[in-house]
Amino acid sequence: MVSLGGLGDSYYEYLLKRYILGNRQEKSFLSLYDESIDTVIEKLVVDSFSTKDNRSYTFLGEWRKVLIPEMDHLVCYVPGMLMLGSNLPQSPDPALAATQSERALLHREIATKLVE
User: pTM of the prediction?
Assistant: First the structure.
């Protein structure tokens, strides 16, 4: 099971916080955060269209061998976490900085959609 709600919420959040609070020295926390969030985006971010009010909604489901289209109330921290992660300093390496910039834009876009 993959979930950002109960029993999993703090793990993802604290990977990023631990990296930041550790003066950005422990790169393993950032790597784990990046890998986790890439998987979350791939597997759990859902765009759904409502015919009732004729608009799209974005939410985070849960993965239990298949996607469960339910958003746990404990995922309310995710937009802030994505925004925080998208504002980390970028690498001086131009190729890596370009990838980081693309990732940051995607994270900001998803965070914005989640709070609409």
Answer: 0.89
